[in-house]
Amino acid sequence: MAICRRYALNDDDAADVLNNGFMKVFTHIEKYDPEKPFKAWLGKIITNTAIDHYRKSLKFSNHDELTDHEDIGGPAQVYEQMAYKDLLVLVQGLPPAYRTVFNLFAIDGYSHEEIAELLNISVGTSKSNLFKARQKLQERLSSAGGTKSGDVYFNNFSTQNEVPLQNKIAADGKR
What we know:
Elements: H1 2-7, H2 11-27, H3 38-58, H4 84-92, H5 96-107, H6 112-119, H7 123-143, H8 165-172
Helix pairs in contact: 2-3, 5-7, 6-7
């Protein structure tokens, strides 16, 4: 359900995604390889089901195509100040296109190329949506009075430079 909540707009949508995901698990259980962890296989199916749900609702939302922008930032300092539930509420408030790209990149560790392929968008659109998602999250954090707008960065979530957000969430025991 935690995966579904990250991608869904509300708890009802998350429950739909979860039900559809479990239906896929039960109908394709013969494809599971017992040599590999079940939790990882289940998580992948749930994530893909959430992406399918996003694609179905895509025709009802509009998204911007922006191919040229500079992605700059510093270390994420917001983690020590927020609980997982607080971050989840902020992420759920993002428009669907921004939320999906943010989750795939920042939490699940997908590259922009992989995201573009999964969502049938360009790499530039993926980068743009991530950039805009970070901006919106920063605006919401600064308007909440928790931090100054220059203190919080949602950039550099790559697994090469920092501990991925999913590891931070798991380490906090909030998942």
